[in-house]
């Protein structure tokens, strides 16, 4: 299975004031103050075991770390400013900026784009949040495993009864 690429995470625009039309601005990134240049997000494996969740607990014990799910893929986000972001919110290496920055379209970015973030997709800022999620996830996993075992036993018993 191929791993998802790093992403520039979406931000919530739920209570944001109205924004200008980026096509009317010389530099559409000025009003945003370099939002997407102040964090990186790295794909992580979807957690399924207590050990996986313990790893995420470790990530979240660190300052300025968030773990979130986007389109079903899990990411660890580090809130850290790019060293190329200038105080005027322009990129100091614009002509040589990395491909992920080139590919990121200001008209559909986390600032101007539709806020299509799915509220049902989890986002974790604290250890307590991931622990609560893990408890529920692992309990459901155990329930499903128990149901599968019962189903298998019932099938086995039926086969023996019919033999
Ligand atoms: S691309 Fe969008 S999110 Fe990134 S700095 Fe420009 S306006 Fe902000
Ligand atoms: S290289 Fe430039 S465009 Fe890319 S994150 Fe840094 S400041 Fe932003």
What does this protein look like?
The protein has helices at residues 50-61, 99-102, 127-162; strands at 40-44, 65-70, 73-78, 123-124. With 163 residues, the protein is α+β, with helices and mostly antiparallel strands. The longest helix is centred in the C-terminal third of the chain and has 36 residues, at 127-162. The protein has a four-stranded antiparallel sheet with strand order 1-3-2-4. It has three helices and four strands. The chain has one domain. Helix content is 32%, strand content 12%. The two termini are 42 Å apart. The model has no long low-confidence stretch (mean pLDDT 87). It binds iron/sulfur cluster (SF4) (2 copies). The site of one iron/sulfur cluster has 13 residues, from loops.
What's the topology here?
Blueprint: E1 40-44, H1 50-61, E2 65-70, E3 73-78, H2 99-102, E4 123-124, H3 127-162
Antiparallel strand pairs: 1-3, 2-3, 2-4
Helix pairs in contact: 1-3
Bound molecules: iron/sulfur cluster (2 copies).
The site of one iron/sulfur cluster has 13 residues, from loops.
